[in-house]
């Protein structure tokens, strides 16, 4: 059976299956900048209180005439482990630098930091309520902080180095279901709460610096006027360019990184000395209060995902809405994602491709792949028998990992390339890429 490539917007059936004893709540793949085993080890957390590690590059056995690869876990820590969690593991993440440590958060109100080699807890943090999400910054160079979202209204930052809480972020009016670090700054944290609010924090300062408002919107972004002033003999060209930009105004413009390859830092992430204009002006207390009460969803914020370039934020809510936000302006881009049914009682894990062209969203028993910029459904993936909770996309292998209440982790892969060869008699035949050598004439 042939699977279509991810770039074309369609995905076929799963080729691998990983089994657990409980519903799969969270997934994380070991894609680390200095890890020699990049993308090899998959970490999962389950509702039975277990956390397991799989080698996704080495199957245990094959079934279905070799079409389905079965993977058994390398090791598992569960309730039988003396330091294991007693309730559901809601979050499981690798330490960003290497696979020597991993972090789990659980409904037993604990966040554990594990030594992978000894499978022992080296640091334990006791939380005031159920832990919904944990996150560590992939770009941090000066801190080792774990952001935790719990059923408490405060977000706590746990320091692995000291084993203590370093920050407590107050602002949400209900529990915090999801947390996400910025891809552009190690100091910026994004949180989504059961109060429907999405807040941006600079952890070096007190209070959040931005609350997203679903009623504050923009239809695309027009280029700055000063950069497009007409020169001599180019008036007509400028007018045509201006008309073209107006025609494209209803589509969010995908921004690119700087020419030197570094990610562009949105103005919201810059320090006050770097920012000029209205951002640095003081606002009336009444206006500040109104902005502080703004909501991004009509219901709890259940999922957050920053795009690969760090310029946009995708959010999912219990109102079954998916929204795309321009981080630089803090505006709702008004991309109309097709009608979906999302999980309303617990957080979900979103995933997107490396070029941010597709976003994968758990929608009940299916996974929908949406075009990020148009909102259209590119493909609906069916393979799970119960509600899907989490997605993880591997940019190395172009594979999608999904976990569900049916206690299965499915791996969705692009097709193996098929080459067409012409023999001496002029007949065309298909030859699998696995039968080809590395030499060419």
TrEMBL record:
SMART domains for this protein: WD40
WD repeats: 82-124, 169-204, 294-335, 381-413
Record GO biological process: proteasome-mediated ubiquitin-dependent protein catabolic process; protein polyubiquitination; transcription-coupled nucleotide-excision repair
PROSITE patterns for this protein: WD_REPEATS_1 (PS00678), WD_REPEATS_2 (PS50082), WD_REPEATS_REGION (PS50294)
Keyword annotations: DNA damage, DNA repair, Repeat, WD repeat
GO cellular component terms given for this protein: Cul4A-RING E3 ubiquitin ligase complex; nucleotide-excision repair complex
Stretch list, region Disordered: 223-282, 419-441
Pfam family, one: WD40
Polar residues: compositionally biased ranges: 232-259, 428-441
Protein name from the UniProt record: WD40 repeat
Organism: Macleaya cordata
């Amino acid at each position: 059976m042939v699977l279509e490539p991810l770039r074309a917007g369609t995905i076929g059936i799963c080729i691998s299956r990983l089994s657990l004893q409980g519903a799969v709540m969270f997934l994380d793949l070991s894609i680390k900048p200095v890890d020699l085993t990049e993308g090899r080890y998959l970490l999962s957390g389950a509702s039975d209180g277990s956390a397991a590690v799989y080698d996704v590059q080495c199957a245990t056995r094959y079934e279905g005439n070799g079409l389905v690869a079965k993977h058994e876990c390398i090791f598992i820590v569960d309730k039988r482990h003396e330091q294991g969690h007693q309730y559901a593991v809601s979050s499981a993440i690798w330490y960003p630098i290497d696979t020597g440590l991993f972090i789990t958060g659980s409904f037993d109100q604990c966040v554990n930091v594990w030594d992978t080699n000894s499978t022992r807890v080296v640091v334990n943090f006791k939380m005031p309520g159920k832990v919904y999400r944990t996150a560590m910054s992939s770009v941090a160079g000066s801190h080792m902080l774990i952001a935790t979202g719990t059923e408490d209204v405060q977000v706590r930052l746990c320091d692995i180095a000291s084993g203590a809480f370093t920050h407590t972020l107050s602002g949400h009016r209900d529990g915090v279901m999801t947390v996400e670090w910025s891809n552009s700054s190690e100091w910026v944290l994004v949180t989504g709460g059961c109060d429907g609010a999405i807040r941006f924090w600079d952890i070096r300062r007190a209070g959040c610096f931005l609350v997203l408002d679903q009623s504050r919107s923009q239809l695309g972004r027009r280029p700055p006027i000063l950069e497009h002033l007409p020169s001599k003999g180019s008036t007509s060209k400028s007018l045509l360019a201006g008309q073209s930009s107006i025609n494209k105004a209803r589509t969010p413009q995908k921004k690119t990184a700087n020419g030197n390859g570094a990610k562009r830092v949105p103005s919201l992430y810059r320090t006050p000395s770097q920012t000029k204009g209205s951002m640095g002006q003081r606002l009336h207390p009444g206006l500040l209060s109104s902005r502080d009460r703004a909501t991004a969803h009509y219901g709890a914020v259940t999922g957050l995902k920053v795009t690969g370039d760090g310029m946009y934020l995708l959010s999912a809510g219990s109102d079954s809405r998916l929204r795309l936000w321009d981080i630089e302006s803090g505006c709702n881009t008004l991309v109309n994602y097709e009608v979906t049914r999302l999980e309303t009682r617990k957080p979900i894990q979103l995933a997107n491709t490396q070029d941010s062209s597709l976003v994968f969203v758990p929608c009940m028993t299916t996974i929908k792949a949406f075009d990020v910029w148009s909102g259209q459904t590119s493909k609906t993936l069916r393979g799970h028998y119960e509600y899907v909770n989490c997605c993880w996309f591997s940019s190395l292998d172009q594979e999608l990992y999904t976990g569900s209440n049916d206690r299965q982790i499915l791996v969705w892969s692009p097709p193996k390339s098929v080459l067409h060869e012409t023999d001496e008699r002029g007949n065309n035949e298909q030859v699998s890429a696995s039968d080809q050598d590395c030499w060419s004439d």
